[in-house]
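Please check this protein record:
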Amino acid sequence: MSHESLSKPGTSSTNSESVQVVVRCRSLSDSEIAKGCKELRLFIWTYSIIIIIFFFLHDKEVVQVKEETGEVYLRLCGVNKDKTTTERKFTFDYAFGPKCTQEQVYHATGRSIVDSVLEGYNGTIFAYGQTGTGKTFTMEGNGNHYTSNTLRGIIPRSLEPVFNTIALQRDRQYLVRIAFIEIYNDNILDLLNPNRTNLELKEHPDTGVYIKGLTMQDVSTIEDIYKYLEKGKQNRHTAETRMNRDSSRSHSIFTLYMETCSQLNASNPNEGDAHIRAGKLHLVDLAGSERQSKTQATGLQFTEAVNINLSLSALGNLIFALTQKRKAKHIPYRDSKLTRILQDSLGGNSKTVMIANIGPADYNLDETLSTLRFASRAKKIRNKPQINEDPKDALLKQYQQQIALLSFIFSLKDQLKEIATTKTDIHIPFRADSREVPTETTARNKELVKEKLEEVEKQNEFEKQFQILFVCVKQLQRKMQKETEQLEAAARAELQKKQETEAQIQMKTKVLEEKKQMQEQLKMKLEELEKKIIDSNKVVTEEAAREEITLSQRKEELNKKKLQQEKYERIVRQQKSENMKLKEKYESQEAELNDKTNKLKKLLHMYNNLTEEIEDTQAQFQHKREDLLETVRVLDKQIKLKDAIIKCFIPAAEVQKLRERIVWNDTKEKWIIQPLNFDQFRKFCKVNSTYYYFLKNIVNI
């Protein structure tokens, strides 16, 4: 995420767009089945026999998903004052049940984002939910399934269209780079280079937030990405808890950077500047929220859970601030490192998709309700995606210009060599000026003398013109030599800026072996740079890529037609209901009374639902408050332990000195001890001396 790779936004979309939200419900796990979390009827046994029979006949569970309408129904049992069962309805862009496939989820979420990134937009896909609900499975897949199979997640599926598109775009060049990080205990770690820990977040006025010192790997094939993806996955922190055998203990962010432009001409490296575009794709796997009462985490796992919950709380506060009707004066992007990295993804320059993962068990009813409400709020976020165009900062342009420069130097090297080594002076015979005229003149030879004088004058005039021409030739020679020196200096200065080609071109005479060696070095450097720019003919065959894109386009068209049909059905249902209301004609006062009584009951039911939702929100707030209080108690114990150690082993005077010197650094987010300043301890000399200070380098402490 180096700031050199990011580009300023150029072409902007006219309208903002909402964050797309998708809900995915997994099936019951083996542990949940063993606990008896099958159906809701087991939970409501003591409340109502009628309700028991109802659910027994219909065999309904806590969560119901209607994929055709994108609706999720959540059955709340015994949470209100009357201890009755109520139902909550949530509507999203897509909703998937336990029987959905990875391919269906990808086509609904990832494909459109990947196509936008290829056009130069920023894109983000992130999975959110309780621990153990299948976020990592949704993003990565099951195990090491990166090849063609049905268990691949969104990350490997999003990479294939990138290289298929590159294979067909022969008139364009691409530069693809990747980065892989995790946020563990609020520290940024580089998964591609485990030695780089606790990386710092920086902010550039033009490019925004970036991570200093992050490893950026150049890739040219999808196999390279799979290799780095597996390497980063092995370095990620995981642990086993009571709710998840392979629980992620950190937030991971896999980022793909792509720059594209038309191919540059070697004779004109600046051609095609307006066609450079830079896209960025964030693929985020958030750690799941946890409750200590359920996970029974202690020690290091408890500390990890505290940091996970704090960062997710900061994310929730950010979404709440972005979705307020009145625009908030302060948007809390700086409350955590996660929210700072996702600053463009939420309310900024990005196309964003959120996947909310939930479970069907009644045991996790509170967490499921919290996740659905979180997803409902996220739908209200408005982003303003823009195409990133800025050829000044594009790294691909620098590589292309360097390749064009090396090719140009190869073609002109011999000519520059001849011009630089040519120092032949022009020797022109010069005839001395002789203006002697015979002094003896007679009448007989006046005509002869006159002819000789005319001949001498003509010769002198010719010699003057020849001298002028000789001076012009000298000036042209000096000018050519000066221009040659300037050209040589400019070429040397340009090559010195490029460390790869420093000291490879010399304009003086060299032996043939050195000349061949220098040319081989330049060719090797040129090949290395050309390897970084992906050649479309070497990625995949054109036929296979074209078939893949055609198949995906057909699937996209089918999905769009399906969505349009669903929208039309919704509109028709709404129009039918409105027409029924308009055509209502009461035959008698009794019928009118019954109809209005039914409407009143519906309104009363809606009122009761809203009241129950308020109570649920208050109960959820109370649960969060208890969790935060428990976290505060643990942190208070740690503070008291540190205070006891300081009190027993560190003198009070030294503690006071440290308190005076220590300051909080907002950028690094840690306490820093300032260096000592000894100026205040210097004293004037008491003896007679011409110096203001005597022995001023000695201090009294």
